[in-house]
Amino acid sequence: MFGSRFLSVFIPTVLSAKAALGASLASDWPEFRGSTGQGMVSGNLPLEWTTSRNVAWKITVPGQGWSSPVLSGERLFLTTAVKESAKLSLRVLALDPETGRQIWDVEVFAVEAGKAPGIHTKNSNASPTPLLAGDRLYVHFGHHGTACLDKSGKILWRSDVLKYPPVHGNGGSPVLVGSALIFSCDGATNPFVAALDKHSGKVLWKTARETSAKKKFSFSTPLVISVNGQTQIISPGSGAVCAYDPADGHEIWRVRYGEGYSVVPRPVFGAGLLFISSGFDRPVVMAIRPDGHGDVTDTHVAWSLSKGGPSTPSLLLVGEDLYVVSDGGIASCVEAKTGRVRWQERLGGNYSASPIHAGGRVYCTNEEGTTVVLKAGAKFEILATNALGERTLASPAAADGALFIRTENHLFKIAKANGS
Hints:
Blueprint: E1 9-10, H1 13-20, E2 55-60, E3 70-72, E4 75-83, E5 87-95, E6 102-112, E7 131-133, E8 136-140, E9 146-150, E10 155-159, E11 175-177, E12 180-185, E13 192-197, E14 203-208, E15 223-227, E16 230-237, E17 240-244, E18 251-256, E19 268-270, E20 273-277, E21 285-288, E22 294-295, E23 301-305, E24 316-318, E25 321-325, E26 330-335, E27 341-346, E28 356-358, E29 361-365, E30 370-375, E31 382-387, E32 397-399, E33 402-406, E34 410-414
Parallel strand pairs: 18-22
Antiparallel strand pairs: 1-2, 2-34, 3-4, 4-5, 5-6, 7-8, 8-9, 9-10, 11-12, 12-13, 13-14, 15-16, 16-17, 17-18, 19-20, 20-21, 21-23, 24-25, 25-26, 26-27, 28-29, 29-30, 30-31, 32-33, 33-34
């Protein structure tokens, strides 16, 4: 373990009294984009903050990573990649979410120095977000491997048998259905979706992606949905979004979108429709009826939107409104059932993090570390603009009225001080 010398904590005194009480979190954030996987937060979050106001704590995180934190009870978990002289150390940190204090720090995989494939400047070797299920923590490092730990930091299994040639690094996070831990492996050639047994790490199934897209690599996180009593794994990749049966990985249906590649946004689902964005170079937002079989490109696309679509941030569905934030900072509110644009405005800055919703507000964090808070609804209204002044690409996490924002070197806990 690294020990405490790698982790420094800043705790404003205005919040230290609450931390001293040892209060535990009342809600969880168990995977990428929360308990629903779609960025919905239970309860309210702070509206305004600065680098000192409403900051419960700020810690220095060792290494580099763009994964989001996950939380359950009295533990917060975060992955990171630390460059050492002889190796790249892929690690998991466990923190006390009330104080930011490090509880443990475990190396899961080690890559010999110089042997890790190159990554994009907007990526890291620890970009996939972990997944919490009960007393188990599943961590995924893309082509480097996947592992399961208990909450004490003991490694229960590791698997690195699924090999593929990455492009720009890793990105997509796993999902869990029954005993199957499922994720995409979309590299330079022969992309596939795979499932590991959550108890042992053994491969349960592996399904090849076959599309006409010339560039095969993508980074999306699957979404689990239920359609007419059937569980589907929705996984966008280069050239098409496909639904898979979690039992054996067979493809249920697909919708093609041509040469769309490097797909990052996680799908969202509601009102009987699935919403996706088709990736680089010209992202198109699509609404799809997910009750088909086979190739349903010509029959099950309810509507599409070609202006303002995201290549990186995921979509956000709140009631009957779909919120879309493009990489270039154009925010749109779209009528989910029809695709009619209610409003479309420029926020400023570039965006990679996915927006979240809490208490009638939409939180959008840009790459400069500024979070623009919008009023959810048919009228565009900025409620607050909150700058941390640090680069961030990671999507925020939220629990128990607090917001957790990862920047290039730090993790912030944003929480109201004394009810302010």
